[in-house]
Each structure stands twice: as C-alpha cells, then as structure tokens.
Amino acid sequence: MSYAEILRSRIEDRSALVGIVGMGYVGLPLALAFTEAGFQVLGFDIDETKVHKLNRGESYIRHLDGHRVERAWSSGRLCATTDFSRLREPDAILICVPTPLGPHREPDLSYVINTAHQIAAALRPGQLVVLESTTYPGTTDEILKAILEGSQAASPQNVPAAVVDPPARLVCGQDFFLAFSPEREDPGNKNYGTTNTPKVVGGVDPVSGDLAQALYGQVVSRTVRVSSARVAEATKLLENIFRAVNIALVNEMKVILDEMGIDIWEVIEAAKTKPFGFMPFYPGPGIGGHCIPLDPFYLSWKAAEYGIWARFIELAGEVNSAMPRYVLGKTVEALNRHGKSVVGARVLILGIAYKENLDDDRESPSYELIELFQRRGAQCFYCDPHFPEARVGRKNRRAMKSVPLNAEEFARYDVLVLATAHNEFLDPALYKRAPLVVDTRGVLPKAPNVVRA
Q: What is the pTM of this model?
C-alpha cells in the first residue's frame, strides 16, 4: 500500500490522529469538531496556560460551551502539549496560527514559517499537512512545500514494512501531502459553526486535495473542492475583501449623511427592505477581528508583485482605518457643545471586544480610540463585562481593568463612547444620568444626551 492509501484508510475508519497547531479561536473549535466525530486530537500551542487548561478539561474561550471541552477531555480524545517534537505523531497536522501584518502593512508569515520548520523537523512519510491560516495565494505552494520538501525524512510510524524505506528527502504528493483549507470561524454566530459551514479545500496536488477533502468530510456537512491551494487561498481573501469594501462603503456613507443631517441607520433599515440586490452592512468605530482588518492587504501586497495596484482594497483600508479618528472628532465636538474640553475629560470606552457579546479583542478599534483620546489629553477608562482586564498586546500598550457596569459608575464620566454593542450595554437606564453618550453603533434610543457617530 502507498502512503496515501494507508492515510486514507486511517481517515475513513477514524483511527487517524489529528494534530492542530494553534489552539485559539480557530484551532480549539476545530479540535472539538474532530473529537466529537470520534477522532483523537493532539493540540499544540506555545501558551502553557492554554495547554494546562485543556489538559484539565477547561475552556478559555467564553463563547465556546465549556461542557464540550470537558467532554472532549474526559473522553480521552483531546490532549494538548507545548512539545513540538511530538509533531511526528499525528497523521494529519492542521496549522491554525496567526497571520498578522507587519508595521508597514506587509504580510507577517513568521508564525506560519516557524510552524513549518517545526513540522519539517519531525516530518515522516504518510503525514498530511493543511494550512488554515489566511494568507496570500501561493503561500502553501511556494513557502510551505519548499520548507517541508527540504526536510530529512523522520522514521516512519506504524507503516507496513513494504513502504518503510523512505527517500532522503520527502516528496510532496508522494511521501507527504499538503493542502490549504481556509478557516471560516465566526465567533458568536448562533447559526453557523465549524461543522455546518461548508469547508473549501484545495490541494497542492490532486492526491493531497483528495486526502484533505476526505479528512474534513468526516466532520463537516459539506466540503467544497477547488482545483488548487492557490484557489482556496484566494477564496478566503475574496470573502473578507468583500466585507471590508462594503463596510468601508457604509462607513463613508455615514460620514457623508451625517453632514447632511441624515441618520445612516434609518437609511439602512429602509434599504434592507428591498428583497433583492441589497445586503445590509453596518458602520462602526472601525473594524476589528483577525480577518477584515488584515486579510485584504495580503492580496494587495501580492498584487504589487505582479505590477497591479489594488485600489479598491487600499481605499477600503483607508476609509475603515480613519473611523476611530472620525469618532474622536465627533466626541470632541459633542464635548465642546457641552462646554467641556477633551483635555482633562474623563472618557469611558464601552467595550474593547471587536464584536458584541464576545471575549475577543483582536485588532479592536477600541484600543486605538483609547490611544487617540489619551494623546488629546483625556483620561481614558473602559468598561467591558467580557474583559475584566485588558491584556497588553500589539494593539494595547498598557494593562487596564474594567470599571463597574452600572448607572452610578457611568454618571462619573464626562462622556461615554459606546464602541461595542454588548447586550449588557443596551439598557437605556444605564445612561439616564450620564452627561453625554456617543453611540458609534446606532443601538441606543435617541435621547438629549445621546449623539450618534
């Protein structure tokens, strides 16, 4: 039997061990889906806290049902490790690591490349490697394949004697297999999760694509096979560029209509009654999450390699990145009308999660709002029931703690800026004693002390 035949057999009888590198917002839900389908899963992460929690059956992502993690652990099908030398153990390795932007909006593939080198150091015949991290077309073929094919073959594991003699260098499509299948997680979505969202799969070669499709077909309701890894990579980018451009359009409309004295949210409610040809998008204080603020620039960067200027993508990025400053300007104007300078003003940002009802602050525009207000001389605080403490990170430069969520506390500030529409913030009674509220999400009832921005 060939390596491909052996691996397919293990996938079909669900005896294959699935390794997942990166146990965050993408990797953990994926791990749970595989364990619930009857697979053994070995999770890899550099964060010892996450690993220790998983190995106690505890969840660290609030929107995920903690009982699912506990069941996966107690069944013996889920364990985690920080020991990357164990990458030789899994039959399939799924890479779910971050792909951020560098300081000049260039792709930062360091996490992917480092992971690829760690896999290469342990790679053995018969393994399938799938990249799920969003990236530009060609990454899987041009970078991962080169790194993995440059590795020495590790000793095969549980392979019949007829195929034990591997070449000095492993060959993709023959000795190991490589594909791309973009993650489509939407944290907090009540209707679509890992298993009922169609999974796009593209292999570097047909055999790799077949094996990746067979693997995901065991856990998701529908796989969508495309002709190559490049097509799969481009599919993910198109999905997120579509959203980024439309969010930029509605953000620009907000700025224009505000000058005309027209409420953008009323316009959207009216426009979405059209049963065809319109899809509602909503403005805000900026864009957050790991996908929309970052992914479009992966394509614009790659397009420049071909002498093409991705004008729509760059323009959308320019509009969306300007929204925190727009909110700052509207807040300063509102404070001035109330006879208050922004210098020395006590400003409370409501919500540092990038999306309502989540404990996810990746690329949140709230951090930029905090920094902008501080630069203008304001005293800035935050309230977020999903984040008792704000972690220091790439976007947040100082540790902060959430203030209490109640009307008495809210009345202590010169202005409240509603940045994230958590359910906990929607009670109008919270704002009755607040001098001024700037609503960037259009979710609060109109009131004398409420300004939309």
A: 0.89
